[in-house]
C-alpha cells in the first residue's frame, strides 16, 4: 500500500511540475485535481486500478502535513498501546485464553470461519453457563 501511494503521488507531482497552472485548450488553468486525474489515467494504462483522484489528493494532504503518511493502525498511530481488548475478554478473561489456545492449536490451517464456528458451538454455550 505504501508503494502504491508513492507511485501515484510521484506521478501526480511529475505531472504538476509540467502542467500545473498551464492554460488548457478550454481557457482554464490546470489545477491540482487535474494533475491527480491525469496520474490516475496514466496508471490505468499501466494496469493499475482502484484509486481515484480524490484519494491522491487526500494522500497528498497527509504527506504534506508532516512529510510522512499516517500509520494505517490508528491505535499505533495515536500511541494507544496495547490495543483495548474486546469487552468480551474483560468480562470473561478465560475466553481470551481459549481463543488463543484454539488459534495456536490450528495455526497450520487456521481460518476466521473456524474461530467463528468454535466460538458459536463451544465457547458461547460455556460463556452463557458461566454468566
Fold and architecture overview:
The protein has about 130 residues and is mostly helical. Helix content is about 65%, strand content about 0%. It has helices spanning about 1-20, 30-45, 55-65, 75, 85-90, 95-105, 110-130. The longest helix has 19 residues, at about 110-130. It starts with a helix and ends with a helix.
Please give the count of helices.
7
How far apart the termini lie comes to 43 Å
Low-confidence stretches: none
- Work out the strand percent: under 5%
**Share in helix:** 55-70%
Structural class, by secondary structure, is mainly alpha
Shape: elongated
Largest sheet: none
> Could you tell me the number of beta strands?
0
Radius of gyration: 24 Å
Helix-strand pattern = HHHHHHH
Overall average residue pLDDT: 86
What is the secondary structure topology, with strand pairs?
Layout (H helix, E strand, L loop, with lengths): L1 H18 L12 H14 L7 H14 L7 H4 L9 H5 L1 H13 L6 H19 L1
Helix pairs in contact: 1-2, 2-3, 6-7
Amino acid at each position: 500500500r505504501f508503494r502504491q501511494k508513492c507511485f501515484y503521488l510521484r506521478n501526480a507531482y511529475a505531472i504538476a511540475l509540467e502542467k500545473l497552472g498551464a492554460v488548457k485548450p478550454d481557457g482554464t488553468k490546470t489545477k491540482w485535481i487535474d494533475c491527480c486525474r491525469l496520474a490516475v489515467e496514466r496508471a490505468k494504462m499501466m494496469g493499475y486500478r482502484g484509486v481515484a483522484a480524490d484519494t491522491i489528493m487526500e494522500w497528498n494532504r497527509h504527506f504534506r502535513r508532516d512529510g510522512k503518511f499516517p500509520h494505517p493502525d490508528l491505535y499505533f498511530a495515536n500511541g494507544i498501546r496495547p490495543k483495548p481488548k474486546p469487552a468480551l475478554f474483560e468480562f470473561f478473561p478465560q475466553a481470551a485464553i481459549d481463543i488463543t489456545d484454539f488459534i495456536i492449536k490450528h495455526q497450520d490451517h487456521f481460518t476466521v470461519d473456524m474461530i467463528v464456528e468454535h466460538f458459536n458451538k463451544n465457547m458461547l454455550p460455556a460463556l452463557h453457563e458461566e454468566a
